């Protein structure tokens, strides 16, 4: 079972999300939160596999809550937003969110996205995510620009995988392009994230964009 915590401040929207997720035989909603502080509290106590996190919430916003949940390795985070290029999404991705969904996502796509992230894939809706990553990478940030030196510990194959992540490709698509097994791609992704000190493949994709790989 995929254990999910739903964090959404609008009760009607939250109830709808819970209803949709509860209809899937392999998904269990283990908790609900109406604000960011409660989301973090429940994530620490319940240790879900995934937190479905609204980015705009009272007490503690979804970006800050995402940073805590991911930083403490409590769960993967899939952020919810009203607009596909909402400013909050950029912050959530930098905070380590595994991906994002629009609130008007179809029920079947919501369930599929939860399964995708829970399976370690991390990037939801590749076509939209590619656009998001490119837009995000083009925005000025307060942090120093990425240093190409961070890549020196990567193998040639890991650099190729990183480049594919920068294009928003799924593990299956990377496996096909680089002619390797999908399981091998997952191993390379895991290793390069560790070497680069990143928490999600989306962060790796953004880094690839920033470095022009």
TrEMBL record:
SMART domains: HTH_LUXR, REC. Keywords: DNA-binding, Phosphoprotein, Transcription, Transcription regulation. Residues 3-118 form the Response regulatory domain. It holds the Pfam family GerE. CDD domains: LuxR_C_like, REC_NarL-like. The modification 4-aspartylphosphate is found at residue 54. Residues 147-212 form the HTH luxR-type domain. It comes from the Bacteria. This is Response regulator.
